[in-house]
Sequence to fold (211 residues):
Amino acid sequence: MVSLKQMKALAVVLVTVLVLTGVAYAAWSRQLYINSTVTTGSLDWYWTAGGGQDTGTDWVTTDWTGVDPQTGYALPAPTPATGDYGSTAIVVRPGHHHYLEVTVNNGYPGYYNRIWANFTVDGSIPVKINPPLVSWDDINWIPLTRSQTYVSNNYLEVNWISWNPPNVPGVGDTLQSGQSGALYFEVHIRDGAVPQSAYHFYITLPGTQGT
Fold:
């Protein structure tokens, strides 16, 4: 049989266990507060400038039949014209620095120009450059790919030269803040276009967060 003394000792042990259990529960049930600061970056890039091969005597070619897979240039290749008639203007849209407007002035059937457009990353987040999009009306955009680099309408042909020169970042590259790159295009006025007219198209350059 259990003596009175043993029962008193057992009671003391039980009380002690209950007290310690309560203390442990109180310690674990306290609310945990974490103070932290979340910093976000900016993802941005912009067109800076552009230029072209046509700085004097024009270049001409016939309607394109395809693209050279080795160089990315449209075929057939252009040849020098006999005078300086057409010109190409490349303008960054005011207030919308992701968009370029390209205008061929005094265009005529056969007119050709090879143009380029520079861009710079100015956000704090690295930007991966994706293939460009082209539009004839600034509303409907046509994505270009390495397997489908050129598009055309009734009057214009535009080809994205998908191979950049060495050490010039372009599509597929990831640029850090402050770094610049360039894209290259060919422009051709198709046979049957109205001479001495202005022809427009637009380019935008998508980008996503890089690593």
In short: The longest helix spans residues 4-28. The first strand starts at residue 45 and ends at 52. The chain has one domain: 45-209.
